[in-house]
Amino acid sequence: MSVRFELGRRRGSGPVHAVTDAGVRLYPGQVLALVGESGCGKSVLASALLGLLPSNAWTRGRAWLHPGTDEEVELLSSSERVLARRVRGRRIGLVPQSAATHLTPVRTARDQLAETFRELRGRVDPGSVDELAGRVGLAPADLAHYPHELSGGMAQRVAVASALVAEPSVVIADEPTTGLDRPLVDRVTDLLGELADRNRGVLLITHDLAAAKRVATHVAVMYASRVVESGPAEEVFHRPWHPYTKGLLEAMPEAGFQPVPGHPPALTELAELEREWGCVFCLRCPDTPGVAPCNGDPALVEYGSRSVAAHPPC
Ligand SMILES: Nc1ncnc2c1ncn2[C@@H]1O[C@H](COP(=O)(O)OP(=O)(O)OP(=O)(O)O)[C@@H](O)[C@H]1O
Ligand code: NI
């Protein structure tokens, strides 16, 4: 799929290329970590799947939910009515970024969960709120609290519980661990892993590579609106092919914090950059665009279970 934002003529620039020809697959039982620097298009990709893009956005391409089954839905062309009644919260649960701010301040955690039950399931069965809370590690007593009385980790658990009310087969978590300290990051991350163990598909959007390494079964690396590498997490993390993936891994604390030099290109100038050089990463790449090992082709190409753009395995 691709997503563009029109900025309007008065701004004097072309559209923002927020997502370009991005292709990912997510199967039940997988945690797919979508990683990449701030602004590369991760959240926009998720918003597009859920029909939550602002009005200045347009999309191209296809995004299939449950393809080849009776429940198949093409998300990008679905009406707001279909997305609201059949998809959001029901088949795809969303754990939003900074969950605490999404909770209603004047309601206890229990009331919020009960309300979500009524909305998505029509009623609240006795015990169902406690049962669900228990699954994410919240005790009944925790649910008596108002949002301001909850720690960041607890609020995050309430958000995960809310996302699970309708037993969605897919859960999208956008930066679910922002602002939490490391032990809590690990607990929330593990919780997402447990959802996949229960045969859900989890899309974990994060720039925390350590969290991705901990729980992801698969990884897709985004750079300047494109997926530049994807595949089984173990393989990609162990033997990255794309120089950007290598750069991200070298920027991790245990690798000595060697951030990728330079900055991502402006998303309004990507088309030009690609026309001129082929690869979107060229300005920061140690390889010369179009000269081996870089083949200068920005398209993601499959090699067995893995895919990579411009830098085929050698
Ligand atoms: N409504 C909009 N109009 C114009 N540009 C937008 C709009 N929404 C997002 N963008 C741009 O799209 C690009 C991708 O944004 P996105 O939020 O997906 O980044 P991200 O990878 O999720 O980053 P972060 O890790 O900071 O959340 C950014 O450059 C952003 O400025
Ligand atoms: Ni984001």
TrEMBL record:
It holds the Pfam family oligo_HPY. Signal peptide: none annotated. Gene3D superfamilies: P-loop containing nucleotide triphosphate hydrolases. PROSITE patterns: ABC_TRANSPORTER_1, ABC_TRANSPORTER_2. Its EC number is 7.2.2.11. It is an enzyme of class 7 (translocase). It is a peripheral membrane protein. It catalyses: Ni(2+)(out) + ATP + H2O = Ni(2+)(in) + ADP + phosphate + H(+). GO terms for cellular component: plasma membrane. The complex is composed of two ATP-binding proteins (NikD and NikE), two transmembrane proteins (NikB and NikC) and a solute-binding protein (NikA). Belongs to the ABC transporter superfamily. This is Nickel import system ATP-binding protein NikD.
